[in-house]
Design a protein that fits this description.
The protein has 124 residues and is of the alpha+beta class. It has helices at residues 7-16, 20-26, 47-58, and strands spanning 27-37, 40-44, 64-76, 79-90, 93-106, 109-117, 121-122. Strands 1, 2, 3, 4, 5, 6 and 7 form a 7-stranded mixed beta sheet that branches. Strand 4 (79-90) and strand 5 form a beta hairpin.
Length: 124
């Protein structure tokens, strides 16, 4: 079941829009965030650290997120499953990036999140 009216879908939209304020507003002050990218594991325990990872390391100023190509959410017991795919362009070319993850809400915000990333995959 695809549902785009969830906190996970809101996370994907804020990321795709590079909207730091919207993303911060979705994150619980004591978020437990863990992620894997092709070359590194990431950990953050507050919204500022998450924003630094997402917008300071994963998607830099030179990365233009051209489109949010896919968003899918579903539930797995008490967790939300999230998949999103973005098209990115930068001086090195055009890419697609997909992330799959799980999250749990706490007080109406994302309190626990795990993501796995495909990495920047070239698009011809």
């Amino acid at each position: 079941m695809a549902d785009t009216d969830t906190i996970g879908a809101s996370f994907a939209r804020a990321l795709a829009e590079k909207d730091a304020d919207a993303l911060r507003g979705l994150l619980h002050p004591q978020i437990e965030f863990r992620a894997l990218t092709p070359k590194r594991a990431w950990e953050a325990d507050d919204p500022g650290q998450v924003l630094d990872i997402v917008f300071g390391k994963w998607f830099e100023d030179s990365d233009q997120i051209e489109a949010l190509e896919a968003v899918e959410t579903d539930t797995v017991a008490d967790r939300e499953r999230l998949l999103y795919r973005v098209r990115v362009s930068n001086p090195e070319g055009d890419f697609v990036v997909e992330q799959q993850g799980y999250l749990t809400e706490q007080d109406g915000k994302i309190g626990w999140m795990r993501l796995v990333c495909s990495g920047y995959r070239p698009v011809e």
